[in-house]
Design brief:
alpha/beta; binds 6-O-phosphono-beta-D-fructofuranose; 2 domains; about 40% helix; Rossmann fold
Length: about 325
Amino acid sequence: MKKEMVKSIGVLTSGGDAPGMNAAVRAVARTCLNKGIDVYGVMLGFKGLHEGQFYKFNRHSTRNIINVGGTMLKSARFPEFADPKIREEAIEQMKKIGLEALVVIGGDGSYHGALELTKMGVNCIGIPGTIDNDIPDTDYTIGFDTALNTIVDALDKLRDTSGSHQRCTILEVMGRTCGDLAVNAGLAAGAEIIVTNHTGFDEQKIIEQLRLSKASDKKHAIVVITEHITDVHELAKHVEEATGFETRANVLGHMQRGGRPSARDRVLASRMGIKAVELLEEGKGGLCVVQHGEEIESEPILTLFEHKRQVPQGMYDDVLKLR
Ligand code: F6P
């Protein structure tokens, strides 16, 4: 028997926001409307799904958002969604307006919800939206490029003052447990030392390297470190005491999550939004959209859970080559 075509699709953003999420929402909405599929924005992620916070899109709903950071649909973390009863209630809310399928834009935490809903009969497609770039099997996630450029901009500014005062500057960046932001930003901004979960944290090694830098007549130094590894203010004190390098620590924080999405993020988000709708149209669910080179593809969410993101060692080696 021929499967009925999907008639109504919802789109939500979940977890930490990321620049470019709006471009993805816009692409989902426009692709649906162009195909004659009803499309709803779901406010506040899975929380809004559970509460029935739906907003029917028309052609004007997503205008002037392609260039705007944050998410027009708002986002929330909603651990309660792990409870099957809460998910049943969310499905009931969807049935009330005839909502058949969902596009879930967010990090891997959001993919759990998407997979569980698919198992319960609601086809869901995940789109990777997170600045961390910590999702396996996709070259990039939406928001990573913009956040990276924000960090590089901050590092350029810190370099100015670090140079003027002949200081060592330590910058803590986001990424959760993933070092992609730190290593890419460090390479782009000419940092001496990168510390991530991949490199491991060895305070004595950092101090030794900075001593060597000072001895080789380097006037200032930049250290980039992923969050949750150590207290960077304490590290700054230890470095200053041990090396004589006057040292300052900075935590860049949530400004990494905001700002006008880069062209690269907008392109990625637009292409992934289109792909997600095409997959739902084909009657598929439980998949996530991924980027492989120039291609936008998909793979089972389950497969992705079995993998771990591999940060290329070569990137770390290259930082050392340019020290
Ligand atoms: O996942 C995105 C991210 O910004 C991480 O880099 C960071 O660890 C976390 O979210 C911060 O979460 P919150 O916005 O809840 O403080």
